[in-house]
Amino acid sequence: MTSHARLAAAFLKQEERAHWHDQALWYVREKRDRMASSVPDWEALRETAQAIKRHALANMPRYLEEFERNAAARGAIVHYALDAAEHNRIVLDILKRRNARLVAKSKSMLSEECGLNEFLAQNGIEVVETDLAERIIQLAGERPSHIVLPSIHIRKEEVGDIFHEHLGTEKGESDPTRLTRAARTHLREKFLAAEVGISGVNFAVAETGAVVICTNEGNADLGNSLPDLYIAVMGVEKVIPKTKDLSVFLRLLSRSATGQPISAYTSHLLGPRPGQEMHIVIVDNGRSEILRRERFYKAAFCIRCGACLNTCPVYRRSGGHSYNYVIPGPIGTILAMHRDLKKFKDMAYASTLCGSCTAVCPVKIDIHRQIVLWRNEVVKAGYLGKAKSAALKTVTLGMKSTRLFRTGGWAMRKLLRILPPFVFNNRLTIWGKSRDLPRMPARSFRAEFRAYSRSKTNLSESGMNREGRS
Amino acid sequence: MKDSRRLVLERLKEHAITGNTSYPIYSHPNSGIIDPRRSFQSVIESVGGECRFVADLETARKLVASSEVFVSAKQLCSYVKEIVEGNFDAEAKATAHECRDVDLTIVRGELGVAENGAVWVNADPLRHRALLFLSGNLILVIESRDIVPDMESAYARLDFTRLRSGYLISGPSKTADIEQCLVIGAHGAKSLLVLVVG
Fold it and tell me: What ipTM is given for this predicted complex?
């Protein structure tokens, strides 16, 4: 598997696109900031959201049973799936029983995780993604590069090409409004023809059995109201205790995700509509394993807003496809590690540990801290690789001994000035790839500080430095 | 399947997180909402919708009658007969699919949320809830006294005991999936007018 660093390098080769990607996401982050600061109780809301999640996850069996009971009482049929394969099989069985051939599907990261579309396609069922971005990448044969903005890596001219090929729009058309209108017309036909709607779930309320889904386009809402068969798929962690809790999560979700006060549509479904058959598939697929790990269970609090992606300096500059796991960015990293430490180990290093992800997370997951802890696990498991291990061991040695550290510093200050740059900036030193090493100071920090302290003492003794300036 | 249910619940029980996991006692009213009517209107306008305050139904009737969405609508479905008569009866249609060409729908909302401009629509009185999303344009009518400051007060007022489906609708449908350019009118309504009566 190609590492994050290599995939990121490929992304960065297209400079203009990479720059646009960075700026576009930063703009979303800024919108998020404006929204967050407009809610006086924002920090308290985050605290409460985390406390509710912690409570809900600690009591999940009870709440899932309550949810199941209430949803069933309203006429929904509830299924449980241990893993992705079972989830896919359950969905296929439902479709087969009803002879459904065309699915109008709304965004679901769970179904991406389970590979549902591929599985259904192999079984002769046509799945049409109805979220505009999801449809774009489906037609392009790609996977989402962002959990909320799946086609953020694709430029409008490329969308024009894709639509020209598949929807018959005019060649060279790149106007977002005209392209969106074309997609609306195309997908409206699919909605009207589909025998079944499938969507993910944002929240499942135990108290009432309600399934809550948020969209801006209205696609999930058409998908859950129009066809006579509707399937909602959800991870076990989506369950929340009370209706009131929606007020906390809905206030945080859209503001954190896209900087909107709330999404355009928030569907609350309590059982099927008259004449409809509604199924809810509740999936574990490794989630119970996340809870088992005491230092890492908070990853399961995630409400999939994508704020940590938008703010991450590495994600913004490397693109979602540079991460090998289905969910990219900081939250993807700490979820991927649970999935397969060896396979996704490089993701733990696709971070500057700046902590911005933790600062914006609406449910206060300590994401950057978990990334550090996962690096420990990578090292402990022996997956670091020989070169990095050796380098780290050498550094550790130097850091542990005051004398070695001082001598090393002295030597570097001298050598860097004498030796030609290629000794430090060559193929082997990654740091020299796009930057020069800083100019070496004449003295060490220690010497500098000693001199400073001495001068300060002298000054205050002579009464010249009452304000503490030096 | 029966087994999977048992296994999933068992695993979750076994792996349950420990420590202080009590349910929080909380209340977070949005103290930033000084004038709920103003906030409600300005948020709706910031998300691409329109919000008008009207003194009574007669004013509402005149306002709608002169609106462009009304004038250009060929199929008009009304659930607020006091404001518009309408010429399309969705209740008489056997399937929602027959409502595919409705240009304008006007329905009542139960409450409006000042902090995010959302209107709660109880879809149970509608034979076809899909109408809310199929309709080319949408007019929602709420009473002035039904504007609440924030989400917490909204949910405190909503009753889910008999509800089958309800939707919070804030602005027209929209997308920014092509290069983050905002386009109003994705799958649902291409315009939204909220009339606040009284």
Answer: 0.97
